[in-house]
Amino acid sequence: MGCWRPASVRDISLTGIALLAAEPFDKENVLTIELRLDKRGFVRKFLIEVRHADICCPNDAWLHGCQFTHPLSEYELQLLL
What we know:
This protein has about 80 residues and is mainly beta. The protein has one domain: Thrombin, subunit H, CATH 2.40.10. The chain is about 10% helix and about 50% strand. The mean pLDDT is about 90.
């Protein structure tokens, strides 16, 4: 069973997402993320694969480059931008 860890979105595209988190996620792990925009009534879970994790200065957060296991649709991406 997994655990819940907060992260924030730094960048997003049809095929991938960059996340900032206080701790590193293991490379090549498949994670479930929940993206929500309460104002738009959008809540959806996605599977992503961690491609890399690097320390991001100045706040010492970890920057994760991740790939969606199934690309977003144009509609989903527009809702999230």
